[in-house]
Amino acid sequence: xRKGSSSMNDMVGLLGKGTEFDGKMVFEGTVxxxxxxxxxxxxxxxxxxxxSAVVHAEVEADTIIVRGEVHGNLKATKKIExxxxxxxxxxIITGSLIVEEGVLFEGSCQMNxxxxxxxxxxxxxxxxxxxxx
Length: 133
Fold this sequence. Notes:
By secondary structure, the protein is mainly β.
């Protein structure tokens, strides 16, 4: 993330490289994890998972950016981004998904369409859209 961006300006916490935390994290704004985290995360803000992070958690946020390793289910009201060498082992529910080439994603994805009653689901075995979901 670039310095000066609104997410960086809203930074309210950092779990730095070499740190470990088990528990429940609730916050508003932006939090970046570069260490090890196990538990749950609930936010109306942005969760950034850095390159050195290893996260075992269930996450609900507005926006989730994954560059490290995540084991758990992610739910984002706005978007989920999996970037760089990011690894995600879990299921996704989101309105928007960005996946860069080279990432690892093992799980299923449900994308909420503009009509909240319509849901699109991606079959993780063949990356095809499942009908009637």
